[in-house]
Specification:
By secondary structure, the chain is an alpha/beta fold. It has a domain of 137 residues: P-loop containing nucleotide triphosphate hydrolases (Rossmann fold). Helix content is 30%, strand content 19%. The chain has 5 helices and 10 strands. It has a 6-stranded mixed sheet with strand order 2-7-1-8-9-10, with helices on one face. A hairpin with a 4-residue loop joins strand 4 and strand 5. Helix 1 packs across helix 2. The longest helix is centred in the C-terminal third of the chain and has 17 residues. The radius of gyration is 17 Å and the shape is globular. The two termini are 33 Å apart. 36% of the residues are buried.
Length: 218
């Protein structure tokens, strides 16, 4: 497959993009949208499609902010390098982490945009929620998500995953995101289904948009 190919967003993603665009900004002039969920739950793929539906909205990947020494202890760096300048209406600059070289690289610009997606485990942590216009949670059980992630990354990353799983458990035990999610996103056989989340005004089992695939079997 051509690595530059990105599938066109389905109707559920397009509807969500329209909803996001109608909401007021909460981070200076920016509508900051968090895409959270367990590792392996499909956050990156979904964020790519949502960004495309938002006319190429920038995506800040928290893999670039975390590091081997700070899998989850990166709040201060994100607030200083990204949130503060965006709140002030300025271009942000952050140093992306190189997971192979085990060091931070040269600063990378994150320009102001109507919508910026923050994608990664911990995107809905309590320190970031006041700055989010919307928090999305990828609705996939953690054991299933972790199994997908291990399969995706292969034997080469087995040791990393052995350390990641308990670290993620500790993070969400201390600072859960899902209870504060405005919307839940479920990947379907074709496309996605978007549901009101625990923090929404409708019960979590009530559909917000039509899904792109066949109904789920409960």
């Amino acid at each position: 497959m051509n690595p530059s190919f990105r599938p066109a967003p389905g109707s559920a993603v397009r509807d969500l993009a329209a909803r996001i665009s109608s909401l007021p900004p909460a981070c200076g002039p920016v509508r900051l949208v968090g895409v959270d969920g367990h590792a392996g739950s499909g956050k990156s793929t979904f964020a790519e499609q949502l960004a495309a539906a938002l006319d190429g909205a920038p995506v800040l990947r928290l893999d670039d902010v975390a590091s081997h020494d700070a899998l989850f202890d990166w709040t201060g760096r994100l607030l200083d390098q990204v949130i503060e300048p965006l709140t002030q209406g300025r271009t942000a600059h952050y140093a992306p982490y190189d997971w192979r070289a085990r060091r931070f690289g040269s600063p990378r610009a994150l320009p102001l945009a109507p919508v910026i997606l923050v994608e990664g485990v911990g995107a809905g942590r309590r320190a970031l929620r006041p700055h989010l216009t919307l928090l999305l949670w990828m609705e996939l059980p953690r054991e299933e998500a972790w199994a997908r992630g291990r399969s995706r990354d292969g034997e080469e990353q087995r040791e990393f995953w052995d350390g990641w799983v308990p670290a993620e458990r500790r993070h969400f035990a201390a600072d859960p995101s899902r209870p504060y999610a405005d919307l839940l996103v479920r990947q379907r056989e074709k496309g996605y289904e978007v549901l009101e989340g625990p923090a929404g005004t409708v019960g979590p089992d009530q559909p917000l948009t039509h899904g792109d695939g066949p109904p789920a079997v409960c």
